[in-house]
Amino acid sequence: MSGDVKQPERTTYREAMREALREALRSDDRVFLMGEDVGRYGGCFGVSLGLLEEFGPERVRDTPLSESAFVGAGIGAALAGMRPIVEIMTVNFSLLALDQILNNAATLRHMSGGQLAVPLVIRMTTGAGRQLAAQHSHSLEGWYAHIPGIRVLAPATLEDARHMLPSALADPDPVLIFEHGSLYNVSGELPSTVQTVDVDHATIRRPGTDVSLITYGGSLPKALAAADELATDGISAEVIDLRTLRPLDHATVAASVARTHRAVVIDEAWRTGSLAAEVSARIAEDAFYDLDAPVERVCSAEVPVPYARQLEEAALPQTADIVAAVHGAVD
């Protein structure tokens, strides 16, 4: 029997995402991938490397440098019954297609009285920490989480990178997947058996009793590292991965705060108008009397992200900042 048991496979976040794309292309002829440099180049971050050779140019399509055009083409293909996966290199480029995403993809079901579905998946890289300066270091997923009519996913683990895509493709409405650039090289063991992940609920990555650390995406490893450090100080931190930013699973957050009575929200976006602000407001609205201290927020400095490494590190939330915020709430 032991010979039939499949052992966990060593892989990376990038490879897990690639395998998810490969499985989607194999299992459904309606699925195709398109975007800038996704074919011959293998993707700007190497996620689609080798897929052109395996599936051909009809299924893996290089596009012109026009985000509005190829996102619009993806919307049209979805309306026609296809299951397009559109890759936008980095989140800042998605602003060139914002009209298509906000005014078309997100609204067509509503404006057609439910007659038109747009089963479109848009993938893009987000986040800072890689010395790409103010051009390519944005964290704008909170902007998209503001928009009704779409689902916003932020896979932070190998399992989510590998297994979120099938649920996204099955959704009749547009789904945006934000992949933090710092995670692509993260490696670990991933079970080889096909699994599914829950894209409707946040998940507790580490249980705790003294404070709730609420985060998502590229900030999850920092929150987990902070929890390890806090444990040496005798503070038990519960780490919540929001996982899905729209619709936001506030019930899991509120239940955690009810147990720990303190909350620290970590968000790499700018503090003003951030997703952290939304989470904090919901805690204040629905869990105020469970709190023993004000909600703390750890966000990026309100500046364009610097290029110099030491300045970039100073501008972004770091493990030490999370630890300090927890001590401010607990001590």
Structure, described:
By secondary structure, the protein is of the alpha/beta class. 36% of the residues lie in helices and 21% in strands. The chain is built from 14 helices and 14 strands. It has helices at 13-27, 51-55, 67-79, 91-94, 98-105, 108-111, 141-144, 158-163, 165-170, 220-232, 250-260, 275-286, 309-315, 319-330; strands spanning 9-12, 31-35, 60-62, 83-90, 121-126, 151-153, 175-180, 187-190, 203-206, 211-215, 237-241, 244-246, 263-270, 296-300. It has a 7-stranded mixed β-sheet, sandwiched between helices. A 5-stranded mixed β-sheet has the order 9-11-10-13-14, with helices on both faces. A two-stranded antiparallel ribbon has the order 1-8. Helix 10 (220-232) crosses helix 14 and helix 11 (250-260) packs across helix 12. It starts with 8 loop residues before the first strand and ends with a helix. 48% of the residues are buried. The mean pLDDT is 95.
Order of helices and strands: EHEHEHEHHHEHEHHEEEEHEEHEHEHH
Counted by DSSP, the helix tally is 14
The biggest beta sheet is recorded as:
7 strands, mixed
Q: Supply the helix-strand structural class.
A: alpha/beta
Strand content: 15-25%
Helix content: 25-40%
Distance between the termini: 53 Å
Mean pLDDT: 95
Instruction: Say how many strands there are.
Output: 14
List the strand order in the largest sheet: 3-2-4-5-7-6-12
Low-confidence stretches: none
Shape: globular
Using only C-alpha atoms, the radius of gyration works out to 20 Å
